[in-house]
Design brief:
Distance between the termini: 36 Å
Radius of gyration: 14 Å
Helix content: 40-55%
Number of helices: 3
């Protein structure tokens, strides 16, 4: 049994809060399990896994990074 992504993200949030630093949260940038095939450049249908975003995915990440910096 592994840790779900939402649990892992909450662990990160807890550590950030405890350390008093700003979190650059990308969990809601628009890339989800349901949109991986659209936003990931190395998406593999056979394994349903990917690691690297494509240009469209990078744009979503960049927009979220800017939003995080301006908050």
């Amino acid at each position: 049994d592994g840790v779900y992504l939402s649990e892992y993200n909450q662990i990160i949030r807890n550590v950030v809060l405890a350390k008093g630093v700003k979190l650059a949260d990308f969990a809601d940038c628009g890339i989800t399990y349901n949109t991986l095939s659209r936003y990931m450049g190395d998406w593999e249908d056979s394994t349903q896994r990917a690691l690297h975003p494509n240009a469209e995915g990078m744009a979503l990440i960049a927009e979220q990074a800017i939003t995080n910096m301006l908050e």
